[in-house]
Every structure is written in C-alpha cells, then in structure tokens.
C-alpha cells in the first residue's frame, strides 16, 4: 500500500514524539540522580513540589514517622528512641517483630550516657554509636533520638544519667564521637535537647534565664561541636523556654545561633509535643514538628498531657497553609524548612536506599560493646586497705545485699529505657565467680513493693542482711535508685539514697568490716552517714544489660577500674553550685551561678567536694613526668603541642585517663581557676611508659566575651595543667600567648 506524503509526515511525527518520550523516561529527574550534589537535588525537588506537599512535610505522620510524599518518592523518616540503645515503645509505631500477634522487639541495652562519659573513651563511644545505628537499621528504622548532651547542672535533674556529665568539653568530644559513628552508618542522629533542658521540674513551662556567656561556654558547646565537627544532620529542640521564649519558637536559638552562628545545615525537630504556635515556630527555624497524625491527637487529648503543659499539632498542613495565605509565613521560609529535611534524606543516602528491616539485634558484637562500656565506666571511689580486688582463692564467702543486687537496674526511666532480652544483675555477675554467695534484700526499694514497707517487714529484712553479712568474709551492698525514682519527666526528690538504704549500709558495715558499697545511680548521692566507715566504694552507674558482668569483673580484678567521674560529687545538696537557684520560682529559673557549674565552682570557690570531677582509682598506680609545651610562646592561632610521659608504676595492667586543664590568671574577665581542654585514656601494661600528646589551639585559651559577642583569648601567660582529677594536678607548664 502506498502512503500519501501527509501520512509519512504523520508517521515521522509520531516516531519523533515517541523517541522524545523514551528519552524523557530514560533520564530520571535531576533530584533522583545520585551523582548530583545534594543542594542541586533539593532545588530540583522543591521546584516540583506543590505548596500543599511542602506544608505537609512540617509535621510528623505518626508517633515516630515523618510524612512521606509518594508522588515524588520522598520517604518517611522512621525514628527510634535512644540514646542508650533502640527503645521499643508502645503505640502505633512500635518496633515489633514479625510475629503474629507482633511482640515488642528487645534490643541491646547499652550503658547510660553518664556511664559512657565515665569511661572517657571516645573511641568506645564511637563503637557504641555504630552498634546502636546497626540495630536501628536492622529494625528498618532510619533515625536514633540521641545523643543527649545537656549539661548536668544540678545533681537532682531526673535525666542526668542520659547525658555526659557537667563539662562542655567532655560532652562535646563524646557527642561528636557518637554522632559521627551513627552518621557513618547512614542513620540520622538527633542531638538533644537544644537547649538548657537541665531540670525536669515543670519541663513544659519552665523558663531558663541564662546570660549569653554562660550559654556559649557551658550549655551550647556540645551542640556547636556536633554541628561544626560532626556536621550533625538533626537537632532536637527542648521543651523548656529559654530567656522567655519556648525553645521550639526561639529564633535567637534556632536561627541566629544554630543556623547562622554555628552554620547548621540539617533540620530541627521539636521534642514530642513542644510547639505552641504555627507561624512563630516555623519562622523561628523549627523544621519538623513531632509527633504528628492520630498519635499526636491521642496524646494531646489525654488530661495528663494538658495538665503538664505539653502542646502540639501546630504545624499541621492546614494550619501552615493558612499562615502562608495570610502572609505570615513566606514560601521561601517553607522551602528552607522542607529543603533541610530533603537535604538530609539525600546526604544520608535514605532517599536512594531506604533501610529494610530484617537484620539481627543484640548480637554478640553489640553485647561486647555494651559490656566494655559498663566496665570502663565503673569508677572506684575508695579502696582502703586494698580490700579490692577480691581474691577468689582467699575468700570463702560473699554476702550480696541490697535492693539493687538481684534486679538489673539497667538505666533510668523514660524514653531512653531499653527493654533488653536479658540483663545481668550484680548478683548473677558475682555468682559467676567461684566463691559461695548468700543473698539478702536488706531493704525494699522505695515505692516498689508496699509489702516490704511495713515496720515489721523492714526490721526482718534488715536482720537477714546483718546476719548474712556477719557470716561472710566480704559483704557487697548494692544500693541506688531505679527507673521510677530517677527518670525523665520529674526530678529526683533528694540527693539522699532512697528510704532505708543509708541504714542498711550502716548496719552491714557494723556487722562486717569488709564491706564494699556499690552505687547503682545516675547522680551523686549523699554519703555522710557511712562513708568514713566504708572501706571500698564503687560507682557502677546504670550499666545497661551487662552491668552485672561489668561489676563482677571489677570486684574480682578481671578488669582494672579506669573510669573517672564526669561530674563532681558534692558532699551535700546545699554545696552544689545551683542549689540556691533550683528549681526556680514562678516558673522561672535563674542560672545565677553562671559559668560556675561543677568543678568550675568547687575548684574556683574552694568548696571541698566529696569526690572531685575527673577522679577515679585504679588497682595500679601511674606516674606522670616530662611535660613539654612547644612552642612555649604562640601567636594567632598557632597550634601548641603538649606532651608528657605516663608510667604504670604498679604490678597490674591498667588504663589511666590523663586530663589537661588550662588556667588563665590574667584574663580581663573573671574566669574559672581552670577548664578541661584535653584528655586521653591510655592503656599501660605493668611497668610500661607511654607518651601522651595533645594539640591545643586558640579556642582552648578563649572565653566568650559578652562585649565582643565572640570568643576571645587575652595575651599573657597561661598555665597548662596535667592532672589525674581536677583536684590532683600533677604537672604544670607555662604557655605564653603573644597576641
Ligand atoms: C523526650 C525525648 C524523646 C521523645 C520521644 C520526649 O519526651 O524528651 O528525649 O526523644 O520524647 O520519645
């Protein structure tokens, strides 16, 4: 059949069109092109999104999920609570196994943040972050809500156990290690809670008043380091107000400081139910409100939620769109918020490779990290007459006593508490050694079992403990708190041990002079009633599921204690620097102690703590020598090398944490007597010597000047101090800053 020229032309057109269509389908949209820079992909994707789609991304879709946009292939971010492992939680987004009916997943319970901080082992914290991120992926989640880097301002903060102690430098180093390791696995961390969440008292209403210098020197450095050194992908804003404005709508905090001053390129999420406005929140730089959808509504409808001041639902799409329409939110702002979330989806790889569940959790490798953390974090506080380590060949009986002996108190309460498959109690751990063990409760844990609380029951329990102690060669009394006395959501009532525990220690010590007291707490406790009579004292903190193994290995000397306190232990509550300004009045708390937090206060104002910051004993001894600071005179930002030798002078292998403090006696402004600016954990065989090196820069010499609104180092002579604790400075050398 012959075709007319017109038919030929039509055929040609159809062919060309089909080639064009094929070409179009073959070339993916630029935002799908993994070779393009994330910024280019973000710009392309934003240009394809409707304003409704953009608005829909500012609030969560569930308790732990952000909103997905299927049309464009934008995945939801599946979150999981942390930071001490992956928490399986109840509710619509519970991480469950595939069983039918689904059961809650049990994951590795890692030691609390304060325990990891007591190890001063950044490499180990990195391995912990990696292990947790691998569990996150194994469960098909994408994000871990940690680390917590809020500073321990008062010994009563209910969440002290989650954080890394009182010092901003230590918190920064550990936070950075955790974040880098999590991100290296393609998992999104969330450094929290930004900022100044330092008490749980009225946490949804309290207004923390903090001067700019104190903020920059104490409460912000760990967040700044997370941004500038780890390029952190996410920051969680705090529940509280800061200087009069809720953190989630605090433009000074989120935009001026975090995004402009620090250069944060990731996105900010709200803490769960911490928003109070729509335009104010979006415009302040809060990018994603959590939680969202039905779980958020259910949460807000609970009377307890309303009573507490918890609030949310402000960034739902219709509310955001109404504000855009009214001109109170610009599309450029919306683009910035959404663009930040998209950028992290690209940078993390989640956009291109969503995590699929099905991996293993609680593997032997993960358990090994948990155990190492629990062991390295244990701090030996007293060891008179070298009662420890216990010699299993010489001891014929041990009485293990106390409300924390036969229960694994793995962590404090709240969103960080992980439910493990199994957890080792102190009693279990001790029983694994070949010495006969007797057990006595001694006293019920306050509030746990009313039947143990009658006068009669108490007398009987105490008597049993005393008689067990009297018959044994050694008594180990494990005391402390538990997840209902030390938790998120409320502060610890008192620095004293829970009811009856002081009396238990006193009675056991009377019955047996070879008594080891073990503290299983996240905070310092008062010890005045028994410490003088206590030969050996161990702080085991909350050790996660392996706490019992860790404790036993320290008690029997299989491991040599190397932990040091990441927080000063005051003798009594009144001695703690913020005692007079806590919890505040009329919902306002003045941080009137300013920069004098922890050892900055005790060491500068000459207040004797019970145990100083950085303190911890070993079964061996270490000698420090040969401090060299080169060059001794520097200008500008010239780096300074500091080196010294540490020798293990005892008979056992051990690890020493060497601490570097900078003393500035000439500044134009009042400064603490010294500040931690370096530390190293060094493993040494018996008799071995190693050289320890630090590099200092100008930042290590600087303070934050309220006049200049910047970091300043005043020329003059500084002193470099090397210590085994903040109060045990062993070596000193001058360093001159010329200009
Ligand atoms: C806590 C956060 C936690 C979030 C989600 C909040 O109450 O403050 O730390 O990540 O809940 O569970």
Give a short summary of the structure:
With 739 residues, the protein is α/β, with parallel strands linked by helices.
Please summarize the sheet with the most strands. Answer: 6 strands, mixed
* Rg from alpha-carbon coordinates: 28 Å
Overall mean pLDDT score?
A: 94
The counted number of beta strands is: 26
Beta fraction: 15-25%
The ligands bound in this entry are: beta-D-glucopyranose
- Report the principal-axis shape: globular
Question: What is the CA–CA distance across the termini?
Answer: 94 Å
SSE-based structural type: alpha/beta
- CATH topology tier name of the largest domain: TIM Barrel
Our count of domains comes out at 3
CATH homology superfamily of the largest domain:
Glycoside hydrolase, family 3, N-terminal domain
The helix tally amounts to: 20
Spatial arrangement of strands, main beta sheet:
10-15-14-13-11-12
Helix content: 25-40%
